[in-house]
Amino acid sequence: MFFSNLFIMDTLELLKAKMEELSVDSTKFFKGNKSAGTRARKLSQEMKALLQQLRTEILDHKKAE
Fold first, then answer.
1. How crowded is residue 39: how many other Cβ atoms within 10 Å of its Cβ?
2. Is 20 a member of any domain?
3. What mean pLDDT, rounded, does the chain reach?
4. Cα dihedral across residues 7, 9, 10, 16: positive or negative
5. Average pLDDT in the 8-15 region?
6. What would the pLDDT profile of 28-37 be if each residue is shown by its tens digit?
7. From residue 30, how far is each of 9, 25, 40 by CA, in Å?
8. Rounded to an integer, what distance in angstroms lies between the CA atom of residue 36 and that of residue 46?
9. Percent of the chain with pLDDT strictly greater than 90
10. Better pLDDT: 11 or 65
11. Rounded to an integer, what distance in angstroms lies between the CA atom of residue 1 and that of residue 5?
């Protein structure tokens, strides 16, 4: 179970980092930088996959208890 906690925390840290990037790129996009919009959409897709992964990890951890 300890290892699953580490995986969950790693995924959360990665999500936090992606969220910071998304915040920066979204701000740039709304100031007129169109390429930042593309990066923001890409980050959103990556975060969607990470959130699904996190959901799976949490469910697996719950089942292991």
1. 17
2. yes
3. 93
4. positive
5. 93
6. 999 999 999 9
7. 31, 9, 11
8. 15
9. 80
10. 11
11. 6
Which residue has better confidence, 65 or 57?
Answer: 57
Residue 53's nearest CA partner among 2, 4, 1, 20 is: 4
Q: Is the pTM of this model over 0.85?
A: no
- Tokens of residue 44, six digits: 């959103």
Which token pair is 16? 């936090």
For residue 65, tell me if it sits in a domain: no
Q: Give the domain extent around 18.
A: 2-60
Taking 3-state DSSP, the helix, strand and coil percentages for the chain, each rounded to the nearest 5, stand at 90, 0, 10
Within a domain: 10: yes
Give the integer Cα–Cα distance in Å for 39 and 63.
36
Could you tell me which residues come within 8 angstroms of residue 40 by beta carbon, excluding any fewer than 6 positions away? Answer: 22, 25, 26, 29
Greater model confidence, 42 or 8? 42
